[in-house]
Write a structure and sequence with these properties.
GO terms for molecular function: DNA-binding transcription factor activity; sequence-specific DNA binding. The chain has twelve helices and eleven strands. It is an alpha+beta fold. The chain has two domains: 5-209, Jelly Rolls (Sandwich); 217-324, Arc Repressor Mutant, subunit A (Orthogonal Bundle), CATH 1.10.10. A six-stranded antiparallel sheet has the order 1-3-4-11-6-9, with helices on both faces. A five-stranded antiparallel sheet has the order 2-5-10-7-8, with helices on one face.
């Protein structure tokens, strides 16, 4: 039976935490030799001004690495500016468990919601954003010897596979179940299961490649910006500049990403989401004792008159009328 090991950096001093986390992930996910880790251009950046906390649970499914990675909001970048010493870095089959993550590699981008998955080549430059935190199961299968499968993977890196339908759903289900049971399986069974999941994933990638192209890089950026906004709606100083800084892009990029959004602008999206959250709490019995003003201020409004105007414009009635007209 394979053992299951749990490690965390939470107890390490904040100044040393990112370095320790880099070493843990490099050793147990990337399986990078210690002599090469210092030259690895990978970078971890905490987001939203939060202290970085992270844990890793890992083991082997036969001869294939399997782990679950959980962390607070952050961005991971393997830069193209410098050649990576990890030339034989693993393929990673990444299944999203909670929140959303945003992947970019080889000019392709995708948004993973819970249950979705994608293939990332750790030997090549890539970026992953976790604006609401990270919770992922990762399988690191061997690189296929079949040139046709290798070409398929090269064409489908960072492409979102919908884990709720077709072969992609089977990959999601099998890998999630395998993670729950891998330390209870004999090595031969575990190895066969890992091979089965990898083979099924290649079929699912072919299925995904035969469907129309999904979201563009701009779609992915807009989704990433929206996830950041939704996480910080209650902050009164949430602004276009704050969103840009929190997501590591320019103000111009933020405006361009929202140019084709139904609401027309990032500011409109922020106010729309705030009004929606307030509307939900106004009719929630759990908030019946709170005043309308208190609810509005709790979602980032600083003026009750401004809130009332936006609320009436959005829903056609005053907040007070909306609350009592059920």
């Amino acid at each position: 039976m394979s053992s299951r090991t749990h490690v965390s950096v939470d107890a390490i001093s904040p100044a040393q935490r990112l370095h320790a986390w880099h070493d843990l992930v490099s050793a147990h996910v990337g399986r990078t030799p210690e002599t090469l880790r210092q030259g690895d251009p990978a970078r971890w950046e905490p987001l939203a001004g939060q202290p970085f906390l992270a844990s890793l649970e890992y083991g082997m499914l036969g001869a294939t690495g399997l782990c679950r990675l959980v962390a607070t909001p952050h961005r991971f970048t393997r830069s193209a500016d410098a050649p990576s010493p990890v030339a034989s870095g693993p393929l990673m089959l990444v299944v999203q468990q909670k929140a959303s993550s945003f992947f970019e590699q080889d000019g392709r981008a995708g948004t993973l919601a819970p249950g979705d998955w994608c293939i990332v080549d750790a030997a090549r430059p890539f970026v992953i954003d976790h604006p609401s935190g990270c919770d992922q199961i990762i399988l690191t299968p061997p690189r296929p010897a079949d040139p046709g499968v290798a070409d398929l993977i090269a064409r489908a890196r960072a492409r979102r596979c919908n884990g709720h339908q077709g072969a992609s759903r089977l990959v999601n289900t099998l890998l999630s179940e395998a993670y729950g049971q891998f330390d209870r399986l004999p090595p031969s069974t575990a190895g066969q299961l890992a091979d089965t999941i990898a083979s099924l994933a290649w079929y699912a990638l072919q299925e995904a490649c035969e469907t129309p192209a999904g979201e563009t890089v701009r779609d992915t950026l807009r989704n990433r910006l929206k996830a950041f906004i939704d996480t910080h709606l209650a902050e009164t100083d949430l602004s276009v500049e704050a969103v840009a800084q929190g997501c590591g892009c320019s103000v111009r990029s933020v405006h361009r990403a929202f140019a084709e959004d139904a609401l027309g602008s990032v500011s409109a999206y922020i106010w729309h989401r705030r009004v929606a959250q307030c509307a939900g709490e106004l009719r929630n019995p759990a908030h019946a004792a709170r005043s309308v003003t208190d609810i509005a201020m709790g979602w980032g409004f600083t003026s009750s008159s401004h809130f009332s105007r936006l609320f009436r414009r959005s829903l056609g009635v005053s907040p007070k009328t909306y609350r009592h007209d059920r």
